[in-house]
Write a structure and sequence with these properties.
This protein has about 270 residues and is α+β, with helices and mostly antiparallel strands. It has three domains: about 150 residues, Nucleotidyltransferase, domain 5, CATH 3.30.420; about 55 residues, no CATH class; about 30 residues, no CATH class. The protein is built from five helices and 14 strands. A hairpin with a 5-residue loop joins strand 9 and strand 10. The chain is elongated.
Length: about 270
């Protein structure tokens, strides 16, 4: 799915090309990133979906971005839950089947595409004087349609199996986590503190970090109002009001009057 290479030769740094090729039509889609990881994988996949629709399945390698290698916790083992990477989880929510390649030969089609692009695309980038990822992605918007007109073909069935994406795709193709709410209604998320304003009885909240960088804190699917803070709020100090001591003079007919003549009665005002 990705190929890290010196796409700009000695004019710029190495980059990773996240590439897609439609098995039915040989149509190619791709985009350059600084590295191969969860965010580039999700971003490139969301762009593919926006252009062509949601595929039935994807054929990828066993890189940790696409398949979790974490061992299940005791709770997960008892519940029969298998750990998933963020990309795995997102594709499962989208209803896209993942097929893992067991050998380089098994993903020969995409490898042949990378070999072709390393020959032709590198030359085109050189002729255009492109030496950075931003300009290279702009160049791909013109280059790939030309490439597809030359090398793509109609599917044998004539039916496009891509599906219309879910309306909530931004809330699926994102980084999802869960955090515990402290007694001061704050949470800690990757070294940052957030104060939640909405009152909730929840012990944990869900966090979504979208591809645009926005963070959403949710409980039962509802967005909670929050703000980022520098430090935890100090607990409110309860100041005990000092008790005021006053003297109350008994009335003349008070039963204590005879025994305590001329004296006041010590009382405490609360």
């Amino acid at each position: 799915m990705a190929q890290r290479h010196a796409w700009f030769e000695n004019r710029g740094p190495k980059a990773s090309f996240m590439g897609y090729i439609d098995d039915a039509t040989n149509t190619v889609f791709g985009r350059f990133y600084t590295h191969e990881g969860t965010i580039p994988a999700m971003d490139s996949f969301s762009r593919y979906i926006a252009k062509y629709g949601l595929p039935v399945s994807v054929y990828i390698d066993k890189y940790t971005t696409y398949r979790s290698t974490a061992k299940p916790s005791i709770d997960e083992e008892l519940s029969g839950i298998i750990p998933k990477s963020q990309f795995q989880r997102a594709l499962q929510e989208l209803g896209v089947n993942i097929i893992y390649a067991n050998s380089p030969q098994a993903k020969g089609r995409i490898e042949r595409l990378f070999a072709t692009l390393q020959d032709r695309l590198i030359k085109e980038l050189r002729l255009a004087g492109i030496d950075n990822i931003g300009d290279a992605n702009t160049f791909l918007e013109e280059y790939l349609p030309i490439h597809n007109r030359k090398f793509s073909f109609p599917s044998l069935s004539g039916i496009d199996m891509h599906r219309k994406p879910d309306k909530n795709i931004k809330s699926i193709l994102c980084i999802k986590d869960r955090r515990v709410i402290k007694n001061d209604n704050t949470i800690s998320y990757y070294g940052a503190l957030y104060q939640i304003f909405d009152k909730t009885l929840a012990k944990k909240v869900d966090i979504e970090k979208h591809l645009d960088g926005n963070i959403y804190i949710k409980y039962n699917g509802k967005n909670l109002r929050y703000c980022k803070i520098e430090s935890r709020p100090k607990p409110k100090e309860v100041k005990n009001k000092p008790k005021e001591r006053i003297y109350i003079k008994p009335k003349p007919y008070h039963p204590w009057r005879g025994k305590m003549r001329g004296r006041g009665v010590l009382a405490t005002k609360i």
